[in-house]
């Protein structure tokens, strides 16, 4: 069993980082903060950032600096901070080379049912985290999990990131967390994409970051295994997903509140 996956099974954890790899200095600053906060609160942490944002609203949207440069930066961050890495893949041929650097391969929500992509990810050594599609019910993720297992993958995570609710809006049904946990895998709650307003700004997505903390606290109270945050030193200047990113200055307070909730005894 993958060592990092054992930690996911045994305790609470966080995935955090800037949406996209804009500049190495920004990514490293965030990673160092994530490591320091996680160590202070005795949490397992994974640094998240994307080398390519392939599903941008507009063709003019910032996607990243490409896979080669992105993997080089992620490898350096991993070496300098000691943090495991999670990053997205969009094509089957990306799985193997990305898994040479990343400890967790993330399947984007829009691609969560793509069989070839799931198979390629499953055949690597990495943990596979699949984000639940905005268009799926939580129980539909059972078949996604079954696909991965049929390809031999045991180290699986599932992530809730909101469900489509009319046009340009998402809503979170917190029943989805225990429903997916009953599938026998650790479950994350993506507190930042869940407040996204898809395509809400015409050529880009909007967001309501003022609701991140409330939703994250609710997920922790619901017993979620881990929480996912996109966080940036200056979200208003971020090149990707700024409107729904948590300001880095508020990251430690957010994690402190989650830990307090997770530590409340439960008889359920």
Q: Tally the helices: what do you get? A: 9
Radius of gyration: 17 Å
The succession of helices and strands, N to C, reads HEHEHEHEHEHEEEHEEEHEEH
Strand order of the largest sheet: 1-2-3-4-5-6-9-12
Number of distinct beta strands: 13
Net shape: globular
Q: How much β-strand is present in the residues?
A: 15-25%
Helix share bin: 25-40%
Q: Low-confidence segments, ≥5 residues, pLDDT <50? A: none
Question: What characterizes the major β-sheet?
Answer: 8 strands, parallel, barrel
* pLDDT averaged residue by residue: 95
The secondary-structure class comes to: alpha/beta
Task: Give the distance, in angstroms, between the N- and C-terminal Cα atoms.
Answer: 29 Å
Q: What does this protein structure show overall?
A:
The chain has 268 residues and is α/β, with parallel strands linked by helices. The strands form three sheets. An eight-stranded parallel β-barrel has the order 1-2-3-4-5-6-9-12, surrounded by six helices. Strands 7-8 form a two-stranded antiparallel ribbon. Helix 5 packs across helix 6 and helix 8 runs parallel beside helix 9.
What characteristics describe this protein?
268 residues, alpha/beta, eight-stranded parallel barrel, two-stranded antiparallel ribbon, 9 helices, 34% helix, globular
Task: Explain the layout of strands and helices.
Elements: H1 3-10, E1 13-17, H2 24-40, E2 44-48, H3 67-81, E3 85-88, H4 95-99, E4 104-107, H5 115-122, E5 127-131, H6 141-150, E6 156-160, E7 163-164, E8 170-171, H7 176-181, E9 187-190, E10 196-197, E11 206-207, H8 212-221, E12 226-232, E13 246-247, H9 251-262
Parallel strand pairs: 1-2, 1-12, 2-3, 3-4, 4-5, 5-6, 6-9, 9-12, 12-13
Antiparallel strand pairs: 7-8, 10-11
């Amino acid at each position: 069993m993958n060592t990092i996956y054992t930690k996911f099974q045994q305790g609470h954890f966080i995935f955090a980082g800037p949406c996209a790899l804009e500049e190495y200095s920004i990514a490293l600053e965030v990673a160092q903060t994530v490591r320091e906060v996680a160590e202070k609160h005795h949490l397992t942490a994974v640094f998240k950032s994307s080398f390519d944002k392939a599903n941008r609203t507009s063709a003019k949207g910032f996607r990243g600096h490409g896979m080669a440069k992105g993997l080089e930066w992620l490898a350096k961050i991993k070496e300098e901070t000691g943090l495991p890495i999670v990053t997205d893949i969009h094509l089957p041929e990306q799985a193997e080379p990305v898994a040479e650097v990343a400890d967790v391969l993330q399947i984007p929500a829009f691609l969560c049912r793509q069989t070839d992509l799931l198979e390629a990810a499953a055949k690597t050594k990495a943990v596979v985290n699949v984000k639940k599609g905005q268009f799926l019910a939580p129980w539909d993720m059972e078949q996604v999990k079954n696909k991965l297992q049929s390809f031999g993958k045991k180290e699986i995570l599932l992530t809730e990131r909101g469900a489509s609710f009319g046009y340009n809006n998402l809503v979170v049904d917190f029943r989805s967390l225990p429903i997916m946990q009953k599938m026998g895998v650790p479950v994350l709650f993506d507190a930042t994409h869940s407040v996204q307003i898809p395509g809400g700004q015409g050529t880009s997505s909007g967001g309501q970051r003022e609701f991140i903390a409330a939703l994250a606290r609710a997920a922790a109270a619901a017993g979620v295994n881990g929480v996912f945050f996109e966080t940036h030193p200056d979200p208003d200047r971020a090149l990707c997903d700024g409107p729904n990113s948590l300001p880095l200055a508020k990251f430690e307070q957010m994690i402190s509140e989650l830990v307090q909730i997770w530590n409340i005894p439960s008889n359920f």
